[in-house]
Write a structure and sequence with these properties.
Distance between the termini: 156 Å
Radius of gyration: 48 Å
Shape: elongated
CATH class of one domain: Alpha Beta
CATH architecture of one domain: 4-Layer Sandwich
Strand order of the largest sheet: 4-5-15-13-10-11
CATH superfamily of one domain: PPM-type phosphatase domain
Number of helices: 8
Order of helices and strands: HHEEEEEHEEHHEEEEEEHHHEE
Largest sheet: 6 strands, antiparallel
CATH topology of one domain: Phosphatase 2c, domain 1
């Protein structure tokens, strides 16, 4: 029992040695907790600092989204509701401004013209461009020519089947156009060969007869008949070389010889097979038909083609008035020119006052309801 009291006494002495308080003080007072500190809002950061300390959360591969690194989100005011937008009203179309000097005017669309045409280029073993234009001074004359594939041919993927050629001949010029028959598979090739052969034959013949005595020289009518027969023979020769039927190359042909007369007069001789037309276009009055459908020859057969019967070319003669223009046109253009006053107004000045092949070709860019065929024109006037 005494041993136990001794242990307690020594324990109290050790506790007294380690306690820093003096013996007179009582138990240590309980420490009061420090007063709570008022939380201050974090200082507002400038936009540059906020952006530099922002965290990035990637939502998609190309769409980063940033969030500010703040302990508590700052409430944001709701944006005002957006006002409902009114349905846009169709703007009134302003009238087309007139073409400036040197610019090509907008070609007209006459009648109800479809807007869904597809430009299907033709697949052929004998490819030809869909558009062609040429021109310049030939002897004492100025000649412009252009040919454009028809809308119907474009839509059905058929190549252009018209052709033209011209050349100096003697003291004048010789011009020709040809229109391949649409139903024939290689009529475009036949038209090209016929027009070229007729022009070459006539020009060559003029060079030969120039050295003959005046009394023995054949006239333009006889030379044109020979030129048409030469074109017929060349088309047949091509059919034999290709081992095809000659009718597969069927085409029309219109060839004209121009000779200068006294003053501003122009003597014109025309040889034709088929339904292409020749017109005289003057500054006043409607176009006068010199050859082809609408002429004064009721017995003419316009359903003929090359190759056909040799010696059947129709021969017409005309004297152009001073300042008038000779216009050759395949049936697609001739029909539009005769039957449509709108086409006449559009073509009136452009076919006769164009000075470049580009301007002349632009005259054929009009669209007319029902006009599906190729359009080919050749104009010649005294320079």
């Amino acid at each position: 029992m005494a041993l136990g009291k001794g242990r307690k006494k020594r324990r109290k002495e050790r506790e007294a040695d380690t306690d820093p308080r003096p013996p007179s003080q009582g138990p240590p007072p309980r420490s009061e907790p420090p007063p709570p500190r008022q939380s201050e809002p974090p200082p507002r950061k400038r936009p540059e600092a906020a952006d530099s300390e922002a965290k990035t959360r990637v939502v998609g591969a190309d769409e980063p989204v940033t969030e500010a690194d703040s302990p508590s989100p700052v409430p944001r005011s709701e944006p005002p509701p957006k006002a409902e937008r009114e349905a846009p009203q169709p703007a009134e179309q302003a009238p087309r401004p007139a073409a400036a000097k040197g610019e090509l005017p907008e070609p007209p669309k006459i009648g109800r013209v479809s807007q869904s045409w597809r430009r299907r280029l033709a697949e052929s073993g004998w490819p030809r461009p869909g558009y062609a234009a040429d021109g310049g001074e030939v002897g004492p004359f100025t000649i412009l020519a252009a040919s454009a594939v028809g809308q119907g041919h474009l839509h059905r993927s058929v190549q252009r089947q018209d052709a033209y050629h011209f050349a100096p001949a003697g003291t004048g010029a010789v011009v020709a156009i040809a229109d391949g028959v649409s139903q024939m598979p290689l009529s475009a090739l036949g038209a090209e060969v016929a027009a070229f052969s007729a022009v070459r034959e006539y020009a060559h013949s003029c060079g030969i007869v120039a050295s003959a005595p005046a009394a023995e020289r054949p006239g333009p009518a006889e030379l044109l008949a020979d030129a048409a027969d030469a074109a017929d023979a060349e088309v047949r020769r091509l059919a034999a070389d290709l081992s095809i039927e000659p009718r597969d190359l069927s085409t029309t042909l219109l060839v004209a010889a121009l000779e200068p007369g006294q003053g501003d007069e122009v003597h014109v001789t025309i040889g034709a097979v088929g339904n292409s037309s020749a017109f005289e276009i003057a500054s006043e009055g409607l176009p006068a038909v010199l050859a082809g459908p609408g002429s004064e020859d009721p017995s003419a057969d316009y359903g003929e083609f090359l190759p056909g019967t040799p010696g059947t070319a129709r021969i017409d003669r005309a004297l152009l008035r001073p300042g008038a223009t000779l216009l050759l046109a395949t049936d697609g253009l001739a029909e539009d020119l005769i039957s449509s006053a709108s086409v006449q107004r559009w073509l009136w000045d452009r076919l006769t006052r164009s000075r470049t092949p580009l301007e002349f070709a632009h005259a054929l860019s009009y669209r007319r309801q029902g006009s599906m065929d190729d359009l080919t024109a050749l104009a010649a006037w005294r320079s």
